[in-house]
Specification:
This protein has 219 residues and is an alpha/beta fold. Helices cover 39% and strands 18% of the residues. It has helices spanning 11-21, 56-64, 87-90, 92-101, 103-120, 142-161, 193-205, and strands at residues 2-6, 29-34, 45-48, 73-76, 124-131, 165-172, 213-216. It has a seven-stranded parallel β-sheet, sandwiched between helices. Helix 1 (11-21) packs across helix 7 (193-205), helix 2 (56-64) packs across helix 5 and helix 5 runs parallel beside helix 6. The longest helix is centred in the C-terminal third of the chain and has 20 residues, at 142-161.
């Protein structure tokens, strides 16, 4: 299977690429959309598209015309995480910036999946990652809560309107282990990236076996 990862240069995207490409559940060909060329070796084939969020049509054409097999599945590991001031106190510019880096990116990734499926006349599975903030009002990360909840509806509308793409969402209901941006004080439970990768692999291999949105949480 040829898997395309948006957000491949991030902590989660890079780890997913490694597990799906070389790990126990691997053997897949992994391409990663990045804004700039990586400095060193990475566990994916970089596709450098600095403006992919602003121009999904151009991004889809660049991906489609590369040599190699067509894309079978897309994973969108897009968006950041932070704990800061209350959402309304951070101001509208901060809110707009979070929209630009989070929900807008997921919209463009969905659009690229649709364009690739139509151009290749093949069915694609599009899996978007989401987190606990999408179902809880996370103080200090309010905009991520807002856009995480909106991401779910984005996928539901895309699924209803699109015949050639299976849109799915995986909500990770705990911090992912190894990400030093997470505050783990007080004994917060985490989820290993291997478990996230295994869940992602199951969904993209058999999208018809799961609901549009599914979740994993600590045992």
């Amino acid at each position: 299977m040829h898997i395309l990862i948006f957000g491949a240069s991030g902590h989660v995207g890079t780890a997913l690429a490694k597990h799906l490409g070389d790990g126990d559940i691997g053997g897949h060909r992994i391409s990663g959309v990045v804004r700039s060329q990586p400095d060193g070796p990475v566990p994916y084939e970089p596709i450098v598209l600095p403006d992919w969020v602003d121009d999904p049509d151009k991004a889809a054409e660049a991906i489609r015309t590369r040599s190699g097999p067509p894309v079978d599945a897309v994973i969108a590991a897009v968006g950041g995480w932070y704990v800061d001031e209350a959402m309304l106190e951070r101001g509208i510019e901060s809110f707009d910036a979070d929209y630009g880096s989070y929900l807008r990116g997921h919209f463009s990734a969905c659009a690229v999946s649709k364009l690739l499926s139509e151009a290749g006349k093949t069915r694609i599975v599009h899996l978007a990652l989401n987190g606990v903030a999408s179902v809880e009002a996370c103080i200090g990360s309010g905009a991520i809560s807002v856009f995480g909840a909106a991401q779910n509806m984005l996928l539901r509308v895309a699924e209803a309107e699109t015949d050639a793409v299976d849109f799915r969402e995986l909500r990770v209901i705990a911090p992912i282990d190894g990400d030093d941006r997470n505050d783990l004080t007080g004994g917060v439970e985490t989820i290993g990236i291997a478990e996230v990768a295994a869940s992602a692999a199951r969904i993209i291999s058999n999208p018809g076996d799961v609901e549009l949105s599914s979740e994993i949480s600590p045992e």
